[in-house]
From TrEMBL:
Protein name: ZSC29 protein
Domain Myb/SANT-like DNA-binding: 7-95
One matching Pfam family: Myb_DNA-bind_4
Domain of life: Eukaryota
InterPro entries reported for this sequence: Myb_DNA-bind_4
Basic and acidic residues composition bias: residue spans: 105-129
Gene3D superfamilies in the record: Homeodomain-like
Signal peptide start and end residues: none
Species per Swiss-Prot/TrEMBL record: Vidua chalybeata (Village indigobird)
Length: 129
């Protein structure tokens, strides 16, 4: 049932949901569990502070739908198609983009994982001076 979540989400409601979702703490909780009712209850409580009245089920449904839509747009883009797009792609990419990347390859912010060219270039500079 597509309309199970009640009334349609407004742009502002979705923005607020994404803002809460972008909280690192919320992301870590969501990544680590399938039984996430408690997390979405917290999300719904935070939305309440913005004056947005949604229950945890509505939040979870919207989260799943956004995530699904993001993944389908992302995979279409990865295969070279530019025809697919969605409203909050960039916001979601900021949140979800790192999740998919980390699983595919190591995070590239580790000092010890630098390419050898970098360290060589540095030491050449030092010896010239």
């Amino acid at each position: 049932v597509a309309n199970e979540g009640g009334k349609h989400w407004t742009v502002n409601e979705v923005r607020a949901l994404i803002r809460i979702w972008s909280d690192k703490n919320i992301q870590q909780q969501l990544e680590g569990t399938v039984r996430n009712k408690r997390i979405f209850e917290e999300v719904a409580a935070r939305l309440q502070k913005f004056g947005i009245d949604r229950d945890w089920k509505q939040c979870r449904t919207k989260y799943k739908n956004l995530k699904h839509e993001y993944k389908s747009v992302k995979s279409a883009q990865d295969s070279g198609s530019t025809s697919k797009s969605m409203k909050f792609f960039h916001e979601l990419d900021a949140i979800l983009g790192h999740c998919t990347m980390e699983q595919a390859s190591k995070p590239d912010n580790d000092e010890s994982e630098r390419p050898p060219e970098w360290t060589e270039a540095k030491s050449e500079k030092d010896s010239v001076g």
